[in-house]
Amino acid sequence: MRFVITLVSLLFVVSAKAATLSNVTVGGQAYDITYHDSVTFNTYETTIDDAPWWGNGTTAQTWANAASTNDLRFAFDSSASNAFYYTTNGGIGFDGKSTSANYAVSAVAVPAPLPILGILPVVGFLKRMRKRQRA
Question: Exposed (0-12), middle (13-18) or buried (19+): which is 106, by Cβ within 10 Å?
């Protein structure tokens, strides 16, 4: 059963056409940016409007300048029929919401190594506790 769930999850991830830009630095913080190739704004509108660059053109331009993938759009506003965006090649524009393009969808802050290393003693403690309970 576990194998089937893993296989279905893997197929879903592969079919989503998602790609990730790793360690894009914005404002001194590293982020992993998820984007989709050849999709419409309508498809990911509810995800894009939660992105950190949404709602502010200057912030969207900062994110677009930090990213290195050509022709990636950072949408920051929309009207009834158009999506407004900055691109990684320095452009600003708007297109219909049903126009196919490469849209940045979300960004996740990359954790610093310290929190990851800080959890190791807790994991060791829990492991010793489980060992004592088995004995």
Answer: middle
- Residue in this structure with the two tokens 């009834």, named with its chain if needed: 80
pLDDT in tens, 88-113: 888 899 999 999 999 999 999 887 66
- Reduce the DSSP state of residue 134 to 3 states and report it: helix
DSSP string, 56-82: -HHHHHHHHHH--STT-EEEEEE-SSE
| Short-list 59, 67, 107, CA closest to 88 | 67
pTM of the model: 0.69
Q: Answer whether 51's CB lies under 8 Å from 105's CB.
A: yes
How many CB atoms are closer than 10 A to CB 74? 28
